[in-house]
Amino acid sequence: DAGITQSPRHKVTETGTPVTLRCHQTENHRYMYWYRQDPGHGLRLIHYSYGVKDTDKGEVSDGYSVSRSKTEDFLLTLESATSSQTSVYFCAISAAGNQPQHFGDGTRLSIL
Amino acid sequence: DAKTTQPPSMDCAEGRAANLPCNHSTISGNEYVYWYRQIHSQGPQYIIHGLKNNETNEMASLIITEDRKSSTLILPHATLRDTAVYYCIVRVLKVSNFGNEKLTFGTGTRLTIIP
Questions:
Q1: Is residue A1 scored above 60 in pLDDT?
Q2: Which residues are registered as beta bridge partners of B12?
Q3: To probe the interface with A, which of B103, B104, B107, B109 has the most A CB atoms within 10 Å?
Q4: 3-state secondary structure string across A8-55
Q5: Nearest to A87 by CA among A41, A48, A18
Q6: Distance from CA of B12 to the nearest CA of A (A)
Q7: Shortest CA distance to B87 belongs to which of B113, B111, B114, B53?
Q8: N or C, which terminus of chain B has less Cβ within 10 Å?
Q9: Alpha-carbon distance B54 to B61, whole Å?
């Protein structure tokens, strides 16, 4: 299995609080991605990174920001969490944009 | 990316070959066929991908029809651990894939392996 660790695995927080999710990889892959998965919507891309300090938006990026200061870490931040951001968040990595993506085990985030 | 059509659910007896079909009749010449699966509460797992030739790896085989309008994922000897939702995805692969990085997951096929 690809060396991907997501933390925390579970989090419950309140509306309006900031939240940061971390994705750590040991594969030295260039590309990293954040998806969210909700019933009826499948997986939707939030943001992705194609190198250190290089990021771009996905299809559902509003309300989220990302940072990648090191190859191995990709952080997803909810500046002011809302109940609509309750979801399961998956990180994925790939060696290149045209290579298969490999996923972490997800973070289950509940915002009350 | 082209759309795909998969049956919503299938059953297969343990030890038998599981054959999962996927229709992608609008696929373009530069689109690959990918298969992923998701076991309950885990992240999606990459299985296999191909362009037009049949492909085989340690997990599965991928059979793509000559006109590329459909494909079949074959799990040769299904086990209970293969119970999962299987997703067929078609995706353009440019040299860098810059600007087209997302994977579009549909609703998939829920495969249940019966003991």
A1: no
A2: B113
A3: B103
A4: CCEEEECCCCCEEEEEEECCCCCEEEEEEEECCCEEEEEEEEEECCEE
A5: A41
A6: 24
A7: B111
A8: C
A9: 7
Question: Which pLDDT tens digit goes with each residue over B18-67?
Answer: 999 999 999 988 888 999 999 988 999 999 999 998 999 999 999 999 99
Instruction: Give A76-111 as a DSSP string.
Output: EEESS--GGG-EEEEEEEESSTTS--EE---EEEEE
Contacts B50 to A, Cβ<8 Å: none
**pLDDT tens by residue, A38-81:** 987 788 899 999 899 999 888 899 999 999 999 999 999 999 99
Best B4, B46, B95 member to test A by mutation, with max A CBs in 10 Å, is: B46
Task: Find the radius of gyration of the CA atoms of chain A.
Answer: 13
- Over pLDDT 90: what percentage of chain A? 80
- Partner-chain contact A31 B101, CB within 8 Å: yes
Nearest-by-CA chain B residue for A58: B102
Q: Identify the pLDDT of residue B106.
A: 81
> Per the CB < 8 Å rule, is A43 touching B107?
no
C-alpha A73/C-alpha A96 separation (Å) is 16
Q: What is the pLDDT of residue A28?
A: 95
**pLDDT at position B94:** 59
Q: In what order do the strands lie in the sheet with B61-64?
A: B18-23, B70-75, B61-64, B55-56
Instruction: Identify the closest residue of chain A to B50 by CA–CA distance.
Output: A100
